[in-house]
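Sorry to interrupt, but I need a hand with the structure work. Leave the record below and I will have a look:
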Amino acid sequence: MDRSFEDLVAEAEAVDVDGWDFSWLEGRATEERPPWGYSRMLAEHLARADASLDVQTGGGEVLAEAPVVPRLAVATESFPPNLAKATALLHPRGVAVVAAPDGSPLPFADGAFDLVTSRHPISLRWEEITRVLRPGGTYLAQHVGPASVLELTEFFLGPRPEARRDRRPDDEAAAARAAGLEVAEVRTARLRVEIHDVGAVVYLLRKLVWWVPGFTVAAYRDRLRDLHELVERDGPFVTHSTRHLIRAHRPA
């Protein structure tokens, strides 16, 4: 039996959205995975590193998947609920979790790490990445690309042409080079996302607050109902995420 709009929305409004665990969406939304396998690459690099830094780690879920971490492993995060989750998850692995505002100078000495990583950072200061890397050190990250989930964002906000110009991988690679890094690899992917009910939309917009800034169910109830009726009539709402992998080195 199909669930009502009110039931789906109420359930999604009540669920905890802290951290980067998306298991609540199982059976409700799907997203293709990038072909390069970031978690596998991260694990391989961590196994070879002596000192690592994971920037904007979220709840620490991705870093915690690695079978081995270096003798010195640190992660930063800015959002207090995520800090608590990351601390609980990573401290038993020997990873120190440090509070650091997004986009601020990193609170570490020059050349402190031979590996800096990040999965879906909100903002980066490339000169800070370069500064904390040792000569010969590596930056490995998976970034969100331009126009990610734009179909969903525009459903709520209308046309957003500026979103097609933000987070372009060629611009980010140029910024990395300008900060003194040698860019070894940039790979891009456009990935199909299917959303099967309006509750999944509410959950995602509560969790990923930059998709529809200022989102609340009360403010967007009419548009949510439109989406619910669209999915009931036509099937899953389809949008597309964009990702790019960047691997760079500080010159030795």
